Amino acid sequence: MFTSISVNYTIPVKRIEHSRKWYEEVLGFKQTNAEEQLGWVELSSDELGVTIGLAEVLDVRRGGPLLVIQVADIEAAKINLESSKVAVSEISHVENVARVATFSDPDEHPWMLRQNLQS
Predict the structure, then answer these.
(1) CA 27, CA 51: separation in Å to the nearest integer?
(2) I need a surface site. Which of 10, 19, 83, 95 has the fewest CB within 10 A?
(3) CATH number, position 1
């Protein structure tokens, strides 16, 4: 019936140009499409294998789904984010599973860094 599925997560933002710049500079996304009259920008990351949409809205609701970025070295990823002035939580350990840390985008949408533990 279906031949494929594409997942595109839309993130509501207050200031689209500010958020677009943050996602490009901090997380390495590249703009792939823009519908300025609609307040829409689409960004992709080949490295992360994901496409996101930023939608400019008047009332941004904080929170939402937790988006997870898989990393090989969580300490290096944390330092990289902090060098861009992003507040990152302390690294937590999920015993025998992973090491994780959380941060937020400029509109306070949650993200997580996750480093799987090798068994």
Answers:
(1) 12
(2) 95
(3) 3.10.180.10
Q: CA torsion, points 72, 78, 80, 82, in degrees to nearest 10?
A: 170
Domain extent at residue 52 = 1-61
Assessment of whether the complete model's pTM goes beyond 0.90:
no
39 shares its domain with 79: no
Averaged pLDDT, groups of 10, the chain, 119 residues long: 71 95 96 91 88 92 84 96 97 94 94 88
Confirm if 49 and 7 have CB atoms less than 8 A apart. Answer: no
Separation of alpha carbons 69 and 78, rounded Å: 12
